[in-house]
């Protein structure tokens, strides 16, 4: 199961690799019961892992951040020097596959410049809409319209030393 010690070990590994933290410190405010948040790496994880993280000593829920303007989309809280973003798209391997006896969940922890994204010149994003009746005899009663999109971009890992993946079980 994911533990606070595993998160601290991941932070130590990234720091040992000279990976820079992504976020700046969030200073405490005069607001009631706010907690300062250190400069941090960013962890991307699933809802079941978040459930486990919330039970760990040292977990700071996003509601306790002193400045809500510094919260990233999907951010749920912080532990040690990692701010966590929850997504239902986080990778996991179900029990019984790949020799797993229990579900194995993956948590990515990223440092600055771990990866890069760039668009390709030209029509990098195109939305295509076909109106009613444009299908001719394939739609003789003009009942169908279609809309779709296509996107072209490139992603690249820039530094393997600035990212790691924890594989773990969860409490539920």
Provide a descriptive summary of the structure in words.
This protein has two helices and eleven strands. The protein has 172 residues and is mainly beta. The chain has two domains: 4-115 and 158-168, no CATH class; 118-153, no CATH class. The chain starts with a helix and ends with a strand. The relative contact order is 0.23. The mean pLDDT is 88.
Low-confidence stretches: none
Give me the number of helical elements.
2
Could you estimate the helical fraction of the residues in percent?
10-25%
Give the helix/strand class. mainly beta
Give a short account of the largest sheet: 7 strands, mixed
Query: What would the average pLDDT be, to the nearest integer?
Result: 88
Calculate the terminal CA-CA distance, rounded to whole Å.
10 Å
**How many strands in all?**
11
Topology pattern, helix = H, strand = E:
HEHEEEEEEEEEE
Q: How much strand?
A: 25-35%
Kindly give the count of domains.
Answer: 2
Radius of gyration, in Å, reads 21 Å
Shape: elongated
Summarize it:
The protein has 172 residues and is mostly beta strands. Helices cover 12% and strands 31% of the residues.
List keywords for this structure.
elongated; two-stranded antiparallel sheet; 2 helices; 172 residues; single chain; seven-stranded mixed β-sheet
Present the secondary structure layout.
Blueprint lengths: L3 H13 L24 E5 L1 H8 L5 E2 L13 E5 L2 E5 L5 E2 L10 E7 L4 E5 L5 E6 L15 E6 L1 E5 L5 E6 L4
Parallel strand pairs: 1-4
Antiparallel strand pairs: 1-6, 2-3, 3-4, 5-6, 6-11, 7-10, 8-9
């Amino acid at each position: 199961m994911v533990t606070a010690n595993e998160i601290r070990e991941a932070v130590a590994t990234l720091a040992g690799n000279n990976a820079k933290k992504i976020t700046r410190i969030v200073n405490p405010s005069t607001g009631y019961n706010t907690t300062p948040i250190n400069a941090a790496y960013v962890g991307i994880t699933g809802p079941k892992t978040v459930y486990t993280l919330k039970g760990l000593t040292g977990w700071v829920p996003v509601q306790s951040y002193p400045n809500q303007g510094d919260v990233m989309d999907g951010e749920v809280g912080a532990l040690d020097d990692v701010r966590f973003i929850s997504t239902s798209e986080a990778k996991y391997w179900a029990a019984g596959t790949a020799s797993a006896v229990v579900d194995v969940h993956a948590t990515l922890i990223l440092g600055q410049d771990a990866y890069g994204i760039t668009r390709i010149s030209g029509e990098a994003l195109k939305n295509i809409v076909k109106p009613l009746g444009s299908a001719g005899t394939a739609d003789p009663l003009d009942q169908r319209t279609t809309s779709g999109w296509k996107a072209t971009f490139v992603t690249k890992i820039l530094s393997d030393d600035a990212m790691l993946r924890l594989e773990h079980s969860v409490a539920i």
